[in-house]
Design a protein that fits this description.
The complex is a heterodimer of chains A (257) and B (340). Chain A has 257 residues and is of the alpha/beta class. Chain A has helices spanning 17-23, 29-35, 66-78, 87-91, 103-111, 143-154, 166-172, 218-226, 232-239, 244-249; strands spanning 6-11, 37-40, 54-60, 62-63, 79-85, 124-125, 134-136. In chain A, the strands form 2 sheets. Chain A has a 5-stranded parallel beta sheet with strand order 2-1-3-5-7, with helices on both faces. The longest helix of chain A has 13 residues, at 66-78. Chain B has 13 helices and 11 strands. With 340 residues, chain B is of the alpha/beta class. Chain B has 2 domains: 2-56 and 77-203, no CATH class; 213-249 and 270-336. Chain B starts with a strand and ends with a helix. Classes of the chains: A alpha/beta (257), B alpha/beta (340). Chains A and B meet through helix 2, helix 6, helix 7 and helix 8 of A and helix 10 and strand 10 of B.
């Protein structure tokens, strides 16, 4: 790209943690601001340009309200490339954790019978609605991976993102295997790497926050833990948290009517 | 061949003495079942009882991730070999791991010579250590339970001492420098060695018959064993990472935000990963999990044998220990033979 790419950074329903991860690139922020023309980033700046066409849009969060979908469609329309950032945008994440229960029931449970002002729809990732060009999962995203993507795009290139499991990175760090050694439910084998096996390196089983690898072997993952006396329900409770829509898509979790 | 004796009373002094030749790395205990090769802070840390580390010594020569070269402005390539001037002493390698390095020497030294691997390899002294097998060791079947070369020194444990075999001129220099710690071997030591050696032979419980394995594998390409294995394997890559001879890598460019600096990075890869055999245009030669698992087994016991005359498995047992779904390499080949 010859001219400075025009970019926008957006958040749908989310905790804003991925945008915060970008703001946390403290040493690189000046370079980022210099390399890109940041037109629209409500979380970080005032005087945002809401109309100019963008080269790249970074979008965090899920569509969990009707206004999210409207915002997302507008962003897609004005952007050449759309990068989904964070596990919510890529897989549904925490907001979609209870998708098997209809929103109407959840709304009543949380807000009671009387209140009906919450505009909540089933939480689904960005890529369920619009074309996404690059997917960067993570809860939150890894700063290094974001910078790699930004640098690749600046070079007019598409980034090379890892697509292997946390187990491999965990082995490279020579951590004790929490499955083999302790029989714990660790999501490492089905979760995409990029975090450098952060949790297992602190003796905490992987929670799966980066979402699934390209080709998850669900059956073998179940078997691995069932062999160790853990129930299907326990396994699911642990493993499906960050990507419930994908598990429902595989008919591994069914809707509760 | 020169063989001396190191009384156990002198062992710590011997380990400390190694510091004179470079940075000493030893097997250390990390958790109940986990051992790693790591720098020695104090001789008391050495885990002499260890059988296998998570990652074999390959990590010192073929690093999990490293920049091969850097350049700025698309020119001025700067070659970068990490640790090129570091003298390293690797203490405590069992025979299987020494064989693992000998196999990697073939891989990285045939055709195109990998200078990154050999720059560090030639700066490293290898000190071997004898072992007693557990139920996952099948090195005896692979002919890797002992070694006559591939080390500078090799320590065989007796009750109160170690027999020290000199395997190189550098090893000889060390024994000359440390001659005060070493004594001559006696007839009694030889007898003790033989007794332990014969006891060790009896301790092997796991065996893999490799006599006509490449031939059987050729016949069994379409065996249902591979389909079944594909159903069990997570393709997590753990077995590749911990394998002393798995040496596949991926190469990519790490770009920088100022668009001036670039690094070309090499990183461990595995034929079990979904996108390993994807080529330009998007075709995947091994899109099925079963095909990928089969490929890994065939490379160890068929492809490598055809190319180099021996298998690229050392029988170290790491893939058995670290497979989260308990896939057992010997059981797999027994099934392929119809012997289960």
């Amino acid at each position: 790209m010859n001219k400075k790419p025009k970019i926008g950074i957006f958040g749908l329903t989310s905790c804003a943690g991925d945008q915060l991860a970008i703001l946390n690139c403290e040493d690189e922020l000046i370079t980022i601001a210099d390399a890109f023309d940041i037109l629209d980033w409500e979380m970080a700046k005032t005087n945002n340009d809401k109309v100019t066409e963008l080269d790249i849009a970074f979008v965090e969060g899920v569509v969990a309200q009707t206004r999210d979908l409207e915002a997302l469609q507008a962003i897609r329309k004005r952007s050449k490339l759309l990068v989904a950032i964070g596990t919510c945008a890529v897989w549904g994440g925490v907001a979609a954790m209870k998708n098997q229960i209809p929103r109407e029931i959840l709304k009543k449970e949380v807000y009671g019978e009387e209140i009906n002002v919450v505009d909540a729809v089933e939480a689904l990732p960005v890529r369920s609605f619009v074309k996404t060009d690059i997917l960067l999962p993570g809860c939150p995203i890894e700063k290094e991976q974001f910078l790699q993507i930004a640098a690749s795009l600046l070079h007019g290139d598409l980034p090379e993102l890892l697509n292997f499991s946390v187990c491999s990175e965990c082995k490279m760090r020579e951590n004790p295997c929490l499955v083999v050694e302790k029989g714990e439910v660790c999501c490492g084998a089905l979760t995409v790497s990029g975090c450098n096996a952060r949790c297992p390196s602190h003796n905490i089983p992987c929670g799966g926050c980066h979402g699934p690898i390209e080709e998850v072997h669900y059956d073998a993952n179940y078997t691995m833990f069932e062999q160790r006396g853990i129930t299907k329900e326990e396994i699911q409770n642990k493993m499906a948290n960050f990507a419930t829509p994908a598990w429902m898509g595989q008919k591994l979790i069914s809707e509760i009517k | 061949m020169k063989i001396l004796k190191l009384p156990k009373a002198n062992f710590n002094k011997f380990l400390l003495g190694l510091n004179n030749y470079g940075e000493v790395h030893i097997p250390k205990k990390k958790s109940e079942e986990t051992y790693v090769f790591a720098p020695m802070e104090d001789p008391s840390e050495v885990a002499l009882e260890y059988l296998r580390t998570v990652i074999p010594p390959k990590k010192y020569f073929f690093k999990p991730k490293e920049a091969l070269f850097k350049h700025s402005d698309g020119k001025n390539f700067i070659e970068h070999i990490e640790d090129v001037n570091k003298k390293l002493i690797l203490f405590g390698l069992h025979p299987c791991d020494i064989h693992g390095l000998k196999i990697l020497d073939i891989v990285f030294g045939t055709g195109y010579i990998d200078k990154y691997y050999f720059a560090r390899r030639k700066n490293t002294l290898i000190i071997g250590l004898s072992c007693m097998p557990d139920e996952k060791c099948f090195c005896r079947s692979m002919g890797t339970d002992a070694t006559e070369d591939g080390f500078d020194l090799f320590l065989s444990e007796l009750k109160n001492s170690y027999l020290v075999t000199v395997g190189s001129s550098q090893g000889d220099d060390i024994t000359n420098d440390m001659k005060d710690l070493l004594t001559e071997i006696t007839r009694k030591d030889t007898n003790e060695y033989l007794k332990i050696r014969n006891e060790r032979k009896k301790r092997f419980t796991l065996q893999l018959d490799i006599s006509d394995l490449p031939y059987i594998l050729e016949l069994q390409r379409e065996s249902e064993v591979w389909e079944d294995l594909g159903k069990k394997c997570l393709c997590c890559g753990s077995c590749s990472m911990v394998c002393p001879t798995c040496s596949c890598f991926n190469i990519y460019d790490k770009l920088s935000l100022d668009t001036k600096q670039t690094e070309r990075v090499r990183q461990w890869d595995s034929c079990l990963f979904k996108d390993y055999a994807v080529v330009a245009g998007g075709h995947n030669f091994r899109a099925n999990r079963a095909d990928r698992v089969r490929n890994r087994y065939y490379h160890k016991q068929h492809g490598f044998v055809t190319q180099f005359g021996k298998p690229s498995c050392t029988g170290c047992g790491r893939c058995i220990q670290y497979c989260p779904t308990q896939i057992h390499v010997v059981e797999v080949f027994n099934k392929v033979r119809g012997e289960d």
